[in-house]
User: Fold this.
Amino acid sequence: MNTLIVFASCCLLLSLQAAGSPFGYDEIHSMSKKYTEKSEPETAWAIPVSDSSAPPPINVSVVTNYITTEVQTLAQEAEITFIGQLCEQSKGFEVEVTVLLNNNPDWDPSVGVLYYYVVDDPNKGSSAALCNNSPGGTPQANCTVKAWPSNGDIYIKGHAGQSEAVSFTLSVTMKQKAGIKPTPFFFDKSPFRNLERTPSANNPTVYLSQVVTLSSIQPLGYHKSALLAFTFCPTPQTGTRYEVQSATSATDGHSSYASYICDKLPCVVDGENVIAANGRQLPSNIVQTESGTWKTLYALIVGWGGVWNPPKDEYIGHFIFDAQTM
Assistant:
């Protein structure tokens, strides 16, 4: 383009000189220069490139659940103990225990109920209970500890009433309070605890399975990331080596996600701490580690797509998350 302009300017100069133009060389050269300058585009059409790095991931708190994986059935006045191994991570957490009676949703004692209490040491009895499900004498489904008092595991000791075949399931929810951050956990001693007495058919012991979830649906902007931290603790059922599987699922029908699991920080895409990855942008993204003695893990979730949000001027997706041992 510039070559064409210079060529046209030269032709104009020669024509004016040949015609005996009253303009001198300096005047003609000045006119040519102005013509050339005006011919340059006033606005650059190149796409600007930002040198800013991606924003850091947002930290998302998780909820740790301990659940039975089978229906429990107790004979008349039979006893049972449930153990949730907390990996010394739950001091200060709010703990809620819930029992679902399969055949007695109204908790009518004449139909059969479960009486239980919660302690943080296997050698503690009902007098040291942190909560029980019959504080006023009437049994109910729930029992809540506002702040877990120690690094001890949770022991739920229960017994059936004077009705036969009490069937139920049980779940424990550990909610992290604001200001409490999980710390990396290392097995400096055997992860299996000794009970105050040997389990028998009349007093079986059930180790609860751990599932990590979110307390609510999590929003995440397009090409932004979220970081979740959680700790798994082995049980006699899992052994000291196990796989961990996580699932990230869209709830809005417009977003998809990639997910990465790390065993230490920093947890970044293509980083050396990534132990499992699924970089395919899927509405339900599942990733599973290899077998190992996994302790504290970190999940990095990267958002793709979403619903357009005019006030925030960006696409925002919404997802739920869960992780468990396999």
